[in-house]
Amino acid sequence: NAQKFRDRTGPFRRSLKRALELVYVTAPHQATDFQPPEPAADDGPSAAWWNRSGRPWAEIKQSVRFLRQTMHEQGPFDGILGFSQGSGMAAILMAFIQAAHTESTAFAGNDAELAALVDELAACPPPKFAMLFAGFYPDLPQFDALIKGPAGPIAVPSLHMVGEKDAIVPMERGKLLASQAFVDATLLTHEGGHFVPCNAAWRKRYQEFISALPAQ
Q1: CB of 146 within 8 A of CB of 110?
Q2: Distance from C-alpha of 139 to C-alpha of 53, rounded to nearest angstrom
Q3: Rounded average pLDDT over 45-52
Q4: Sequence-ordered strand ranges (E) for the chain
Q5: What mean pLDDT is predicted for residues 40-61?
Q6: pTM to 2 decimals?
């Protein structure tokens, strides 16, 4: 939910306003796997990039195409910010885009469906960086095929933040996303749970990450 996430990342957004203009996007599916026990009255329905209990890959393909259209209509974008399942979706999208810009015909002979979706992403410029919070490695054979295929792990600067007390996405799952899906990822750990930490010390680390990005 774009508005919900925007409201909950106010300090983060304000701390980086001189460096980044953030665009928040609501996922295209209604969440059925998980609902907060006591949602706020103004939260509205929870959104999802995919639901594990339904047809996850079909929903992911729809989400990829939805994000491709968003990038076409509102972009270009320099980077991608993700939280929780949004971090996994960001990794999927970036893997597709990287594969689309890799000169290889390997997919054509192995998975025509993957190859077709890769081709659709060819017009999207590769992101220059990613900041992913409370994420996890998407446990899907199609994602494995992208990451372990000819394009390889995602080769853009990435910052990954995981929480030691995260009861929703265990810290080890976030570490797996950083180590297996990305090249030379920056992994940070905070002492809290399932949220974007944004005290003064963490805001400084985020600013340092942005400042260290290669000039484009």
Answers
A1: no
A2: 13
A3: 89
A4: 29-30, 47-48, 79-83, 129-133, 158-163, 186-190
A5: 81
A6: 0.90
